[in-house]
Amino acid sequence: MTLNIAIDADASDAPYEQLRAQISEQARSGTLPAGYRLPTVRGLAQELGLAANTVAKAYRVLESDGVIETRGRNGTFVAAAGDAAARRTAEAAAEFATQARRLGLSREAAREAAEAAVRAVYGGGGA
């Protein structure tokens, strides 16, 4: 099993975001199983032709999202991402609902705002 990352220099997303998204997706789908040891920041940067700071930024975001975990000198590993992602999503949704209610939005207005945000991020209108 190897990490399969492709950075598109012409893409609209920054290289660190492309890297973050690809590792996150591979962890979520099980392509990279929990416990898989990721390359070092410097090693992956060299392999992909990126600056070490770019890889480090992606790793920091992935760690804060609960997708990966750093175990000191032992390295960086894929965490149980599915559970962490589901938990963080539920927390964010609860915070959104609480804030919308505080602001006086109706249930329907809150739902419409959430759906508009999802469309803006994911694009399109369908399922």
What does this structure look like?
This is GntR family transcriptional regulator. InterPro entries: Tscrpt_reg_HTH_GntR, WH-like_DNA-bd_sf, WH_DNA-bd_sf. This protein has two domains: 15-79, Winged helix-like DNA-binding domain superfamily/Winged helix DNA-binding domain (Arc Repressor Mutant, subunit A, Orthogonal Bundle); 82-122. It has 127 residues and is mainly α. Strand 2 and strand 3 (76-78) form a beta hairpin. Helices cover 58% and strands 6% of the residues. Helix 1 packs across helix 3 (52-64). The chain has five helices and three strands.
What's the short version?
InterPro entries: Tscrpt_reg_HTH_GntR, WH-like_DNA-bd_sf, WH_DNA-bd_sf. This protein has 127 residues and is mostly helical.
* Percent range for β-strand residues: 5-15%
How far apart, in Å, are the first and last alpha carbons? 32 Å
The major beta sheet can be summarized as: 3 strands, antiparallel
Number of helices: 5
Q: What is the number of strand segments?
A: 3
What's the Cα radius of gyration? Answer: 17 Å
Organism: Streptomyces xantholiticus
Protein name: GntR family transcriptional regulator
InterPro entries: Tscrpt_reg_HTH_GntR, WH-like_DNA-bd_sf, WH_DNA-bd_sf
Domain HTH gntR-type: 13-81
